[in-house]
């Protein structure tokens, strides 16, 4: 009887789904062809998380326990005495997040003071959406610890974002980093800032920071910042031994985000095919990944405009609203979940 070999994908977000679909469409068919004709068909299982593991585990890899884990990036958690709300953290069961979203919508409807912490795209987009929807019925403050919004975009575009936010009623407060928060007896939230000041809000939304969800990995497979120690050219995890790879934000090989991920998946797939087929005389060429450092980010602000650039070229507000602002790419999800994005290698 032929030996059963396993390919494990940890994660079912953009990275895990993309890696699994690419494997099923382009690597597994070649493996099956290379087998004895009488060998049983290769079966596939549901992907679990955004890194991959194939046979030939090293001692480090074997130390990982098989248990249920959350997606590979999660919202940065403050100290235990200052827990982040379920709205912006991973809770395991999706119903917890759904309930938190419903409760937030109820609170927003009657809120008079809203504070959003975070000057990155999530904070800016959240502030723009809420301000547009409430149409001046609440005071909205956006906090950032930096001297500008949107760190991946040039200063002129960041200033443009500030002016757009101010136009819909958002006050941007620079040099004000949230360090903690707590509920008050009257149901409001007190937000502590790193400058010693405090703010009080009916609604507080922390929208800053991500932390790689790699607590379950051995330390020798992680970088100093907690990301998977990934070879930036091959996307292999060399310290874990042969046939171990990392995909998505957790790999830490680029600025993060779906666009960078999608550029890396074909390289990841080619190198997995190269390694897996090498044992049966395959000749799939290795490929090298080169992370692009150009200015690429689209940030809708409300329903009709936004700021951003693609490959260093600025995009007009109406184009950003048309491309991303309508549904934040939700309409493209079937291409990811059903694998249509990866029909071509």
Fold topology:
Elements (H helix, E strand, L loop, with lengths): L7 E4 L2 H21 L14 E5 L5 H4 L10 E3 L18 H17 L2 E5 L3 H14 L4 E5 L11 H13 L2 E4 L4 E6 L5 E5 L4 E4 L1 E4 L3 E3 L31 E3 L11 H21 L18 E4 L5 E5 L2 E2 L2 H9 L7 H5 L8
Helix pairs in contact: 1-6
Protein name: FAD/NAD(P)-binding domain-containing protein
Family: Belongs to the FAD-dependent oxidoreductase family.
Organism: Friedmanniomyces endolithicus
Please state the structural category: alpha+beta
Largest sheet: 4 strands, parallel
Please tell me the total number of domains.
2
Q: Please estimate the helix content.
A: 25-40%
* Global geometry: elongated
End-to-end Cα distance, whole Å, is: 32 Å
**Low-confidence blocks of residues:** 38-49, 61-82
Radius of gyration: 23 Å
Output mean pLDDT: 87
Strand element count: 15
Describe the structure.
With 345 residues, this protein is of the alpha+beta class. The chain folds into two domains: 8-69 and 212-292, no CATH class; 77-208, FAD/NAD(P)-binding domain (3-Layer(bba) Sandwich), CATH 3.50.50. 30% of the residues lie in helices and 18% in strands. It is built from eight helices and 15 strands. A four-stranded parallel sheet has the order 6-5-4-10. A three-stranded antiparallel sheet has the order 1-2-12, covered by helices on one side. Strands 7-8-9 form a three-stranded antiparallel sheet, with no helix packed on it. A hairpin with a 4-residue loop joins strand 8 (189-193) and strand 9. It is elongated, with a radius of gyration of 23 Å. Residues 38-49 and 61-82 have low confidence and may be disordered. This is FAD/NAD(P)-binding domain-containing protein. GO terms for molecular function: electron-transferring-flavoprotein dehydrogenase activity; flavin adenine dinucleotide binding. It holds the Pfam family Pyr_redox_2. Residues 100-255 form the FAD/NAD(P)-binding domain. Residues 31-90 are annotated as: Disordered.
């Amino acid at each position: 009887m032929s030996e059963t070999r396993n390919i494990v994908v940890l994660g079912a977000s953009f990275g895990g789904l993309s890696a699994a679909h690419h494997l099923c469409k382009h690597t597994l068919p070649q493996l099956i062809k290379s087998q004895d004709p009488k060998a049983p068909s290769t079966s596939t299982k549901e992907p679990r998380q955004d890194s991959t593991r194939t046979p030939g585990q090293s001692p480090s890899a074997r130390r990982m326990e098989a248990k249920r884990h959350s997606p590979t990036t999660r919202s940065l958690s403050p100290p235990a005495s200052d827990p982040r709300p379920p709205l912006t953290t991973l809770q395991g069961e999706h119903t917890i997040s759904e309930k938190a979203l419903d409760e937030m919508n109820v609170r927003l409807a009657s809120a008079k003071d809203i504070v959003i912490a975070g000057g990155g795209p999530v904070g800016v987009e959240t502030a723009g959406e809420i301000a547009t929807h409430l149409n001046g019925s609440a005071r909205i403050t956006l906090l950032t610890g930096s001297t500008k919004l949107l760190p991946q975009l040039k200063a002129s575009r960041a200033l443009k974002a500030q002016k757009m936010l101010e136009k819909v009623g958002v006050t941007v407060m620079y040099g004000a980093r949230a360090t903690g928060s707590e509920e008050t007896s009257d149901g409001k939230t007190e937000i502590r800032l790193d400058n010693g000041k405090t703010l009080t809000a009916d609604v507080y939304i922390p929208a800053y920071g991500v932390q790689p969800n790699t607590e379950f990995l051995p330390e020798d497979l992680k970088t100093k910042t907690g990301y998977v120690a990934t070879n930036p050219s091959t996307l292999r995890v060399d310290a874990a031994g042969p046939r171990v790879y990392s995909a998505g934000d957790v790999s830490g090989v680029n600025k993060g985000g779906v666009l960078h991920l999608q550029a890396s998946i074909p390289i990841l797939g080619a190198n997995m095919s190269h390694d897996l087929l090498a044992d049966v005389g395959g000749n799939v060429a290795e490929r090298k990944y080169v992370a692009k450092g150009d200015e690429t980010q689209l940030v809708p602000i409300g329903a009709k405009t936004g700021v951003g650039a693609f490959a260093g070229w600025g995009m007009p507000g109406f184009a950003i609203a048309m491309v991303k602002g309508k549904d934040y790419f939700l309409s493209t999800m079937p291409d990811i979940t059903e694998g249509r994005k990866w029909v071509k290698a």
